[in-house]
Design a protein that fits this description.
metal-binding; IPNS-like_sf; two-stranded antiparallel ribbon; metal ion binding; alpha+beta; single chain; DIOX_N; 4 strands; about 10% strand; globular; two-stranded parallel sheet
Length: about 150
């Protein structure tokens, strides 16, 4: 079992490691659902780029997130990407690590738990992350995972 991925820990530990417990001041407070507020909706299809940037900044500051429409990415492509990511993260941990170990320098394709600074960060986030560059030139594709086959 590869201990580098938090997805393998559920059968090992009977409790959450303390490094994954967020301090009280960082935890969400009482959650309310104000009926007068809605998720900010940002239209990327407009021609007023300054206004769009202003909307993104405001939504990020006030909510921390927003919904985007007219972004130019088809629903089919989004659905296919999500299915491929689910398939990758559904593979056994050892297989995921092997798929991300082809880069001799370990910088162009890597998988890690919580953050890249796992060993020095005091507070962790319970997640496994796959990261690699994806320039339009196709450079670095030789380091991308071979599985699932549609990943590439």
């Amino acid at each position: 079992m590869d201990q580098r991925l938090v997805s393998t820990w559920s059968n090992v530990n009977s409790s959450v490691p303390l490094s994954f417990v967020q301090p009280p001041e960082c935890r969400p407070g009482k959650v309310t659902n104000p009926s007068t507020k809605t998720i900010p909706l940002i239209d990327l299809g407009g021609h007023d780029h300054a206004h769009t940037i202003s909307q993104v900044l405001k939504a990020s500051q006030e909510y921390g997130f927003f919904q985007v429409i007219n972004h130019g990415v088809s629903k089919d492509l989004v659905d296919e990407a999500l299915n491929i990511f689910k398939e990758f993260h559904g593979m056994p941990a050892k297989e995921k690590v092997n798929e991300c170990s082809k880069d001799p320098n370990g910088i162009n394709c890597k998988i890690y738990a919580s953050s890249e600074n796992y060993k020095i960060d005091a507070i962790q986030y319970w997640k496994d992350t796959l990261t690699h560059p994806c320039p339009p030139s196709g450079e670095f594709m030789e380091f991308w995972p071979q599985k699932p086959p549609k990943y590439r």
